[in-house]
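User: quick one - fold this with zinc ion bound?
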Amino acid sequence: MGYEPAQLCDCGKKVPRWLSWSPDNPERRYYARVDAMVPTTGGCGFFKWHDAPTTPFLCQLLNDLRNAA
Ligand SMILES: [Zn+2]
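Assistant: Sure. Structure tokens for the protein plus zinc ion:
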């Protein structure tokens, strides 16, 4: 939660920032409510990418680096 400026969700709460490591979006930051995947807890399901979409070239490069580690 230690980032600025704060990203607010639809209910006006500060949203945690996460780092994606999925093959399609390696090392791409995004904002999501902790309870976004659990609608029953009353989360608003807020989700937003921080970084622009990863280009296919960069995506391949990052995945190669990750697999080589
Ligand atoms: Zn919300």
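One thing worth noting: The pocket of zinc ion is lined by residues 9-11, 13, 33, 44, 46 (CB under 6 Å).
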